[in-house]
Specification:
The chain is an all-beta fold and 120 residues long. Helices cover 0% and strands 60% of the residues.
Amino acid sequence: VTLVESGGGLVHAGGSLNLSCAASGAIGSIYIMGWFRQFPGKERELVARVNKDDSEQYEDSVKGRFTVSRDNAKNTVHLQMTSLKPEDTAVYYCSAAGLYSGSNSPFGAWGQGTRVTVSP
């Protein structure tokens, strides 16, 4: 399973960016799809995700500013980021977990990462 991200870039504080991620490959079903981010020298942390029951989960610092959405038919997930702050600067990674098609074998996949830079 391959995840391809798009939409990162440079924006001024207070601005907005939209990230998109498309999954492809031998996908039977995707349970969870979402976004993590990684600051320099830190481990990846969850930003937002859509769970199997369509519930949404957000990291506290992005609540009210970021919105995650998922299109199950297209195997895509999006992250709408508004009111961006310099502290949101990081590499953002798409993530998905589910089952391979034709089997009950689970998969977990990461995108290649897309850089988001928010200038003061």
